[in-house]
Amino acid sequence: MSEPAWTSTHPHLPDAGFDGGSMDCGNGLLLEIRRHLNALEAGGLLEIRSTEPSVAGDLPSWSRLTGNMLVSRTGTPNSASYIVCKGAFNSDRRHSGAVRSTVAARLPGPRLAVPSGSLVPLNLPPLAVTGVGSWPRPAWMLHLLAAHLEDRLPPGVFAAAAADATRLAVADQIACGVDLVTDGEQSRDTYAGFVGSRLGACRLIPLEDLAAHVEHPEEFRRELSALDVPPGAHHPVALGRLVRDRELVVPDLRSARASTAIPVKIALPGPYLLARTLWLDCLLERHYKDRETLADDVCTVLRDEITHLLAEGAAIVQLDEPVLTEVVHGAPAARRSFMCGALSERREPAQELAFALDLWRRVTEGLPRDHLALHVCRGNWSADESVALSGPYTPLLETLSQSPFGTLFLEMATPRAGALEDLIGLPSWMRLGIGLVNQKLDQPESVPMLLGRICRAAQLFGPHRILLNPDCGFATFATCPLASREAAMRRMQILTVCAQTVRRELGI
What we know:
The protein has 508 residues and is of the alpha/beta class. It has helices spanning 29-38, 55-66, 139-149, 157-176, 207-210, 217-225, 250-257, 271-278, 291-311, 324-329, 339-343, 349-364, 397-401, 447-461, 485-506; strands at 6-7, 16-19, 45-50, 69-76, 79-85, 101-102, 128-129, 181-182, 200-206, 234-243, 264-269, 316-320, 372-376, 407-410, 431-437, 466-470. The chain has two domains: 6-102, TusA-like domain (Translation Initiation Factor IF3, 2-Layer Sandwich), CATH 3.30.110.40; 129-138 and 174-191 and 245-506, TIM Barrel (Alpha-Beta Barrel).
């Protein structure tokens, strides 16, 4: 079939449309087209606006290859509008109304300004109790989260729901007696991948769609079947330059702070984690030439967000870097334990740790270390302990000791993480968040055991240097939390009771 002629107007109105800007077919545009076509019924018409001349030659062949049809095109290759039909086109089609929806592509806008503000005092008691980050989400929030990821909600609905869910998560933690609350990560589908829906030129792509854009699809699918991938998972993909053109988690901080006078901690994926997650060396189409170039923009994005969070009153901003344990305890030839570890490149451990340390320093330069924290664990997607990584912190101590974080929140409740004594070599100015409850287990830890562990930590490091927390979040992946709300509250209540008991015994 011949290609349609260039005309001044389209003969048919589209059902949906988006602005692809300067993206070309080899750099993300096809992913966007497929995502929008997926939302249409067979025979639906999609308008693609483009300023990239190469699309004029590539789009017709792609349409034929995929069984879709390029119906019409207007303008010029330098400023074009294309209409593609999902599947076969019915020339007798009639369209009586206006375009049903026009969705702007996530092209980067201008870099968001960062406000100035005063730090909130960090007045935490000895043996302060806090969560790590995520809290189980209400069923209605999960429903709205799924609809939000599919662009099915009117403007403002999801933001209002996320604010309500955050207030409920904070109220639960206050009822448990914690000394430092988290926002509960209620608006996130996963602890790291959520950035794909909140950065200009970044998208959350269903993994089933992503498989069509890798060099070895069948190998890719085999890897996914063995990793920390929940059903219906999405993965963030950079379709262009990463720019913080909107707030990432600042709205969640505002909702949490509006709910309590207790200090608020908020977590972000760390720069090393994001560089590993967003750099998919198996992709056929990549915007960045290498991981280092991508990491430059990651550092800028995170630094701006952290600065904004501190200005808005976050007591502690925590960076999550769980994949560090994969670097030192995950054999290169063996099955990886983190999705981002499996899909991205990984060099020798010494090189990776040096890369991570450099990124941390760049992100936090000039920021107050007492208000910065790092979280490290060994995987948090399955209750089966045998599938999680195992190994002490010993290979990480040198890197952690040089890091710019005032607090380390560490997984320590499981024997897989080694012994408390392994941490003695860390700098005395670092506070240590000691994981004391394993959120993966059905039964809570016994009070005598917890009291003994808390007393031992206080003896080794001093009570003023210790915080008490679970090993990880209770719902790292929104749709498959490892604990119910009731179980999470029970764990945190026991932890606060034990902390109060030891404080009384120590007279502090």
